[in-house]
Amino acid sequence: MAIDRLMYPWLHAIAQGADWLGTDEFHGVSAVGGALWETWLGFVAANGGLGHYTSRLKGGKDQSTIAFNEIAVAHFLATKCGMRVLGWQPSGAPNTRGEFLVGPDSTRPIFVEVKTPRWQAEIARADDGHPRLKMPKYVGVETRSTNPWASVEHAVEKAHRQMPDNIPTLLVIIDDLFVSLADWAGLVQDIGLYTPKSGLKPEGGPFADNRYDRLGAVGVLKVVADIPFRAVAYRFSLFENTHARPTAAFPPEIAGGWPRYNCSGRVA
C-alpha cells in the first residue's frame, strides 16, 4: 500500500516500517481517511505529542487504532470545544497516567482519559472462546444481541482507577463496537450510567452514587467520515456525574453547544 508523500507527509512518515501497513482495510488510505489522519498527525505534532505516540502509531492495527483515537479526541476537544492541549501523559492516581490535559487556559486544566471499547469484548463477555473472535468485525448479514451499557460500565471502572482527585476529570469513549455508543444515547444515559439501585441491579449504574466520585463526566464521541463528499462530522454527548467530588466535577461552561445530560435528563 503506497501513501502519497506529498499529499500525506505525516502519515507517510508514520507508515514507514509500521506493523499495520497493509494488514487491515481500516488502514487503506482513502481521500477522506488519509486527509483525516494527516490532520490528526499534524495536530499532535504541532502540540508536542508526536514523540509520545510514534511507537504506538507504528504498532499493530489495534495499538495504532487506539493511538489514533486518542489523538482524535484531543483534536476534537481543541478544535470543537474551545480548549487547548496543556500536556501529554499527565500523572493521575498513584502510579498511573492519563492521556492528556486540556483546558480553556493553563490555569484550568482538565484530566482526560480515553477508552476504546472493542467489538471483540462484546462477544468475549459471553464466550471468550467463541469462533467469531477469529473473524473480521463485519462478515455480511448477521444478527446478534448487544449490551452497550456493559461497555460503558467497564470503561468507567477502568478509567476511574487512573483519575486524580484534585482537578476536573473527563473520560471520553470512542468505541469500535458493532453499534456505536453514540447511536445508543438514550441507553447510555438511562442504563449505562444512571440506572437507579434496585433489586435487579443492587449497585445501580456507575453514577447512581459516589463510587466513582473522582470522575467528573463521561463523553461519548463518534467521528463520521463521509467518503463520497469528503466531509467529516462529529457526534458528541456529555454525561455529568452529579456525585463527583467538587474538585473533579466537569466545568459547566466547557463544551457548550453539545448535548449534555445528568441523572435528571438532558440539561443543555
Report on this structure:
With 268 residues, this protein is an alpha/beta fold. Helices cover 29% and strands 17% of the residues. The protein is globular. The N and C termini lie far apart (45 Å).
Q: What would a concise description of this structure say?
A:
This protein is α/β, with parallel strands linked by helices.
Layout of helices and strands:
Blueprint: H1 9-15, H2 31-46, H3 50-57, H4 61-80, E1 84-88, E2 100-103, E3 110-115, H5 119-124, H6 148-160, E4 169-173, H7 185-193, E5 217-226, E6 231-240, E7 260-262, E8 265-266
Parallel strand pairs: 3-4, 4-5, 6-7
Antiparallel strand pairs: 1-2, 2-3, 5-6, 7-8
Helix pairs in contact: 2-4, 6-7
Feature tags:
7 helices; single chain; eight-stranded mixed sheet; alpha/beta; 268 residues
